[in-house]
From TrEMBL:
InterPro entries: BfmA-like_N (IPR048012). It comes from Autumnicola edwardsiae. Residues 116-142 have a biased composition (Basic and acidic residues). Residues 113-142 are annotated as: Disordered. This is BfmA/BtgA family mobilization protein. It comes from the Bacteria.
Amino acid sequence: MDKGYEKEGFETLKIKSSVANEFRIFSRMLSKSQSMTLLLMMDFFKENGISPVESMGPHMETLEKRISLLIKKRMNGMIAIMKDIEKNQTKPTVAMLYSLFEHTEPPKKKLILAKKSGEEKNEVRYREKKYLDTNDNEQWKK
């Protein structure tokens, strides 16, 4: 049953059988009942100011203009909201954080564990053994 129309009775309309068959196929494509399909079609024509008798040429152009105006209005609204957020929230917060960190920045100290790349290259890792003279060997024997 159609929501909101459960208690209403049915009426008959006299339409040609070929038109009725096409309408039934169209209703199945929309997955709606025949009553709801007809109601949707009438609402569409009323909302958009379109007459089924007239051609869609000039009315389609006006629909495009309406849609483009709506999109522009919404975009302008979004831009205004973003500018307001930036002005009233983001910029003051950034300014406060900047002022906090500007005055209390600690001086930079060298890390204790930091390696000095220049000293490592000059440092010798292995040294040649010195051979002891015979005189030195006697000292060690004593």
